[in-house]
Amino acid sequence: MSFSALPGQTPPEESHCKRRKLLLALIAAGALPCSMLFGATPSYAFQWPQHEEITKDGLSYGPAWDSKTLNFLSKEAVTVNDTKGWGDRAWLHCDNADFVSSDYSTKYPQTRAQASFHLQKCIEASKAHLERAVDYAGDLVDSNNKLAAPRHFGIPCVLDDKKGRYKCNTIEQLGRSWHGLEDFYAHSNWADKALDKPLGFKNPPGLGMNTLPSFWGIAYLSYSDIADKVKNDVPGNLTTGCHPGSRSWGSKIYPSCKNRVTHDHILNKDTRDATDRAKFGTNYQDSMKVATREIMRQWSDFRSRVKGRYGERRGDLIICAIIKDDVLKNCG
Fold first, then answer.
1. Residue 290: which of 180, 177, 175, 190 has the closest Cα?
2. Three-state DSSP class for residue 331
3. Which of 52, 227, 240, 244 has the CB geometry, 3.0–4.6 Å to 74, for a possible disulfide?
4. pLDDT digits (tens, 9 = 90+) for 88-115
């Protein structure tokens, strides 16, 4: 279900007003996240309940998050990349990194190198947001282990990728970072299996992996490391889906997905019944499981990065300020 217009379309004013009133009512009832007000397009990615489930399950290992903060992260910050202005950027969702080798498809429209380039841009985007999260985390507690002013711990807040309250800054960047890597598992064949029919661009081979790829270990990879990992560690038959409404890095043009592995009708596992591929065997569940394990890794690595940069005591206070609803009461 998508509440936003297709690229190049604008909903009629009357329809827009009715839509906004409906969204406000649903948000007030707790049925939708606030991010839906900004033109959410969940068709680009795991729909927001799946993002929420993955994030919450992944964060259940480690220090306990308080409910308000956890809901803000999992329902809002992790899904903001699906909202208008970001939803059509392929590199935020690991789209358009599609490829099928000549063993299964002759003259595929893009090469392995081109597909890997688009994947690399997705990984780099998640890396950039992670680095900002580590940077912004230092604002929560100063070098004397003193908490920032109380106003900086208020949530929720506007998620516009601009600096504001310190806690919001950090959580927004974590959410944006984790969105892309969660999408990778839904939008690729990393953890799935092909359908029981001939292989080709309409049914690319599945890799069936249950391990975490080296190239997503972004907390401890430099950008040059990422490039090397993509070049050397990406399996030759790894593919994501071509999305006709998702423009690639450096392009203002939406791609033609003719004779390509498509996101919408072939590969995505954004929901349990999104495609035949999602419904086949345990493909949907397997993608969710590996994505959850990825969040476990990312959250553990983030905490280690924070403590490594700011020291053990200050780092512990920073993590406390991130995960607790009442920071002054629990972290002072």
1. 190
2. helix
3. 52
4. 899 999 999 999 999 997 889 999 999 9
